[in-house]
Amino acid sequence: MSAASLTLAAAQSASVAGDLASNLRTHLAFIAAAAESGVDLLLFPELSLTGYEPTLAAELALEPTDLRLQSLRDACREARLTAIVGAPVHGPAGLHIGALILGADGSCQVHTKQYLHPGESPPFTAGTGGDLLNIRGLNGALAICADSNHRAHATAARAQGADVYLVSAVIGATGYAADSAHLAAHAREQGFPVLLANHGAPTGGYTCVGRSAFWLADGQCLAAAPGAGELLLIARLEGTTWQGEPRPLLR
Q: For the CN hydrolase domain, which residue ranges apply (predicted)?
């Protein structure tokens, strides 16, 4: 890890089922708040732009060139930050749970979920992941929810050169204890920090608990949201020291 000063943030957002226009406004509010906090990379939850709605996914799928994304791309470029937002995407193998990586340079790349939960196929098919993200000298590996339940995924990320593991998720009350234990274990075993962005409100039938968090490379939880609701979970690196805190979203 070569970045001397870097700020990551999880956007613990609330999505309205199938309402792209409303969710775009929410994302813009988070990007504006992140810019005020000097964030370099902003991570949203799984399927944040549409909500976790498998039955609506095919009609809600987005392409990188979709003009409806232009406001987000412009906001990221103006704020000079990278945002990772969630949406269904079409690929050669079918419909995927995807993440759109909106770069500070105005670019848009696609990452797809590799490991599906039971019940996600159909309508979704397993994807192929994506490249590491380089943010000011730090290499980030993206995991979309169930990806992070597989030790092999975190191990492969570290082998590829990841310095931090970025987890975009939908986690309810019954799953949080096990899922957070997996993330702490990945941090310890792979020797990299882990950032989790979880939904801050119910979506797709899941009563998401929020509790977005950041684990240090020894598995210690440095900072976590106290519960549900919309907020930013900030993790700031100065030299070799991380500091973290949750910040309410004011809008």
A: 6-239
CB-based contact 132:162 (threshold 8 Å): yes
Q: What is the pLDDT of residue 249?
A: 87
Two structure tokens written together for 232: 């930013």
Q: Locate tokens 């920090």: which residue?
A: 193
Residue with the two structure tokens 């020291």 = 241
- Torsion angle of C-alpha atoms 120, 122, 123, 127, degrees rounded to 10: 70
43 closest CA partner among 4, 74, 10, 19: 10
- The ranges of the chain with pLDDT < 50 are none
Q: Tell me the CA distances in angstroms from 27 to 14, 58, 80, 96, one per residue in order.
A: 10, 21, 15, 21
Name the pTM for this structure. Answer: 0.97
Can you tell me the distance from the alpha carbon of 215 to that of 192, in angstroms, rounded to the nearest whole number? Answer: 9
29-59 CB burial, b ≥16 within 10 A, e <16: bbbebbbeeebbbbbbbbbbbbbbbbebbee
